[in-house]
Amino acid sequence: MFEETAIKKEITENTTNKKMFIESYGCAMNFADSEIVLSILSENGYSQSAGESDADVIFINTCSVRDNAEQKIRNRLIQLKNNKKHKPDLVVGILGCMAERLKTKLLEEENLVDIVAGPDSYRDLPNLLKNVGGGNKSINVILSLEETYAEISPVRINSNGVNAFVSIMRGCDNMCSFCVVPFTRGRERSRDVKSILTEIKQLSKNGYKEVTLLGQNVDSYLWFGGGPKKDFESLSEIEKQNSVNFARLLELVAQVDEKMRIRFSTSHPKDITDEVLYTIKKYPNITNYIHLPAQSGSSRILEVMNRNYSREWYLQKIARIKEIIPDCGISCDIISGFCTETEFDHNETLSLMEKCEFDFSYMYNYSERPGTLAERKMKDDVAIEDKKRRLTEIISLQNKISKNKNKNREGKVYRVLIEGASKRNKEEYMGRSDQNIVVIFNKLNYQPGDYVDVLIERSTTTSLIGKIIAKAEKP
Ligand code: SAM
Ligand code: SF4
Ligand code: F3S
Questions:
Q1: Residue 17 Cα, ligand 2 centroid: separation in angstroms?
Q2: Of 392, 407, 422, which closes a domain?
Q3: CA of 294 to the centre of ligand 2 (A)
């Protein structure tokens, strides 16, 4: 779910003669934030540039999660600095996690950008833009305990009109020892339930068929009237009565439109509850799919990672998911070569993968991040060749599991929401099953946004290939 692919996005609207262009890197939350930035700036008169070359302002919305993500962005900023030689009035702004992490560094030491804006300061962008020019630079990297951009209606970018992201919370309070996110996104806070429902009702009206509720730890969503995160136990009686937890939010969202599929990401193994699992089971339009990052299969490494669960806890959660939702798709994130990881720990990860049989996983080498607990207190002591070899073993095991699981799906029928043309063959459609497996099939007379039943004839490691056998009315 959290990939480092860059998508170049063009921005519409108009009123002044200033044009902007935004490019997003990192996780889905960053892509959702770019739509908030677009909304704020289009309200303030900025209009679309047809491409990067005719933009007056270029924003790069950035990711700091691994060093290679930052290196890629740094190269892009150097390229833009060179472009400025031919276009001295061009304003370049850095947004998002790298802006928050590096603060003034990119302005002062490297003179790479004109504006630096952290994830909680996007309402200030119109001011920041006013103050640049003639050598002036501007910065706002203040993190907030309350900002959720709740009432801002995102302007969808490069949308297929079928799927949309909806942020339900911001920040993270978990402090996994390897992770930079709590430092770049600040403290956890939940968004007003009413504003979430309003946004989803509007999406439904506009014909969208799938929403993905986004948060770093959706299971700890708790709306009780606003403000920084509190635990349920510490709420007043009135707050308790009016509070909405993640299971209840899922239920409210599912009731908006029975023809709209509801997805969510990311769940945390320590926090996902039976109440959430039973809510998924109860509503056919909540997809049977959970992204449940394990990170490691070794209890000792999980403790060093400060994940707050053990291997046994994780395996029990998977067993519970399979018991309550037997055909649930499950995916995972795994980090190879975290501090002190031995061959034994690595084998524990491989055996956890064998036991859980994830449908797919996002797999990474550990990358030390400045400011994290691991960087301050631990040694990045797994040799790079061991990290890489272990990662290769993890990836080939996952490929074997995915291939086998997909093979077993041949001959079965899956309900698929059509998302658009397949990337490989424009004559075919691509969609996803309830379990979030990619399905490729013939177009016939159907349109993106339609639900169809597809008979699976062939499969690969990453997708199912089949033919439509019937139209369906809902998920
Ligand atoms: N909040 C989610 C969770 O707890 O699973 C994940 C958020 S993080 C942005 C996405 C993934 O990046 C993590 O699940 C982890 O696998 C990976 N990741 C985070 N920090 C990393 C690091 N320092 N090195 C390698 N991978 C990392
Ligand atoms: Fe990072 Fe852990 Fe928070 Fe996920 S739960 S964002 S891995 S600190
Ligand atoms: Fe996302 Fe990267 Fe920030 S994964 S939260 S954009 S560090």
A1: 41
A2: 407
A3: 11
Residues 6+ apart with CB under 8 A from 294: 269, 314, 332, 333, 334, 349, 352, 356
Q: How far apart are CA 64 and CA 52, in angstroms?
A: 23
Nearest CA to ligand 2 atom 2: 176
Q: Is 309 found in the same domain as 207?
A: yes
Taking CA atoms only, the protein residue closest to ligand 3 atom 1 is 27
Same domain as 359, residue 448: no
Nearest CA to ligand 3 atom 5: 181
State the closest ligand 2 atom to the C-alpha of 185, by its place in the atom list counted from 1.
6
CA–CA distances in Å: residue 416 to residues 73, 260, 264, 385, 412: 35, 12, 17, 41, 12
Task: Report the domain count for the chain.
Answer: 3
Residue from 1, 3, 22, 29 whose mutation best tests the ligand 3 pocket (most atoms within 8 A of CB)? 29
225's tokens: 């009237």
CATH number of the domain enclosing 380: 3.80.30.20
| Pair 134, 181 in one domain | no
Mean pLDDT by 10 residues, the chain (475 residues): 42 62 96 95 87 92 97 94 89 97 86 95 96 90 95 90 97 97 96 97 97 97 86 88 95 98 97 98 98 98 98 98 97 98 98 98 98 98 97 98 98 98 93 98 96 98 97 95
Q: What pTM did the predictor assign?
A: 0.95
Q: Note down the domain range covering 212.
A: 163-407
| Distance from the alpha carbon of residue 65 to the mean position of ligand 1, in angstroms | 7
Query: How big is the chain, counted in residues?
Result: 475
Q: Considering 125, 140, 155, which residue would you say is the last residue of a domain?
A: 140
Give 193's contacts (C-beta < 8 A, 6+ positions apart).
Answer: 223, 244, 249, 252
Residue 63 Cβ < 6 Å to ligand 3? yes
Q: pLDDT of 212-253, one tens digit each?
A: 999 999 999 999 987 778 888 899 888 888 899 999 999 999
Task: Kindly give the distance from the C-alpha atom of residue 253 to the centroid of ligand 2, in angstroms, as a whole number.
Answer: 25
Ligand 3 centre distance from Cα of residue 411 (Å)? 39
Query: Is 366 found in the same domain as 267?
Result: yes
User: CATH no. for residue 27?
Assistant: 3.40.50.12160
